[in-house]
Amino acid sequence: TVSQPSSSSHGSTAIDAARIYSAAAPGVVAITSSGVHTPSGQMATATGTGFEIDSQGDILTAGHVVAGASQITVRLADGTTRSAKVLGTDASLDTAVLNIDASGLTLHPLPLGNSQALAVGDPLAVIGDPFGLASSLSTGVVSALHRTIPAPNGSTIANAIQTDAAIDPGNSGGPVLNGHGQVVGIIDQIATGGSGNFSGVGFAVPIDAVRDELPKIQQGIQVSHAFLGVSLGPAGSADGALITAVAPSSPAAAAGLRQGDRVTAVDGRPTRGPDGLLAAIAAQ
């Protein structure tokens, strides 16, 4: 995987969408997962998006796109299809790496950027397969940073990127690209407002959180993350994070934290609200 430094385009929402699409779309793939179990216990087929990260056939996507699948098929931008296997997953980041047989293929791995360099208002582009509409492009901006979203295993994903770029079912696992055409996030969730479809609020897993874990995921090594074991009150004050519940036998309980405590610093560094605490724990 090639990582490239990224400079932000602070102060401008202009983006050369045509150039970015031309360079990145050949490396974006459609994913069909068969035999997925629905919450009701029925078997179903799920669709999503992924993107090539090296020339050996490794593909990065969202973990929930392939979770529990009995068969996974990847369709490349040129229409070629290949069966895929899961090399590894990280449920705490809702991330998975797939592999396809790369023999005879010309792959187009996408460069990874730096999500920490993003600022609110920076332009973004998203490429994916919403509703099965292959290689669709949408653009928008960074609406907010340092959001916290739930992970499939019950933990939380810190520092998620919020964007208003159009995202719909089928986009999950696709790349979020900065103005330089570098991947800064992986599309993960949308806020639907009860409609089931995009409402102008989408979230992506920051690529910085995934990059350090990639070698382990590609080797199928189980990835562990720091865990506190508390429920937090809503953001209402920048002065720390209010603990509303402590899980029994958790690290927080062992450390003596109790309901009603307010955490104002971690390792001597001040925390700003619940998102700040979760980000500090995730960085451990």
Strand content is: 35-45%
Beta-strand segment tally: 17
Report the biggest beta sheet as strand number plus sense, adding barrel if it closes.
Answer: 6 strands, antiparallel, barrel
Helix content: 10-25%
* Assembly type: single chain
- Based on secondary structure, the structural category is mainly beta
SSE succession: HEEEHEEEEEEEEEHHEEHEEEH
Molecular shape: globular
**Could you give the distance between the termini?**
23 Å
Rg to the nearest angstrom?
A: 19 Å
Overall mean pLDDT stands at: 87
Poorly predicted ranges (pLDDT <50, ≥5 residues)?
Answer: 1-9
Number of helices: 6
Query: Which strand order do you get reading across the main beta sheet?
Result: 1-2-3-6-5-4
Descriptive overview:
It is a single chain. With about 280 residues, this protein is mainly beta. Helices cover about 15% and strands about 40% of the residues. It contains six helices and 17 strands. It has helices at about 15-25, 65, 205-210, 215-220, 250-255, 275-280, and strands spanning about 30-35, 45-50, 60, 70-75, 80-90, 95-100, 125-130, 135-150, 155-165, 175, 185-190, 200-205, 230, 240-245, 260-265, 265, 270. A six-stranded antiparallel beta barrel has the order 1-2-3-6-5-4. It has a six-stranded antiparallel β-barrel with strand order 7-8-9-12-11-10. The chain has a three-stranded antiparallel sheet with strand order 13-14-15. The two termini are about 25 Å apart. About 45% of the residues are buried. Mean pLDDT is about 85; it is low at about 1-10.
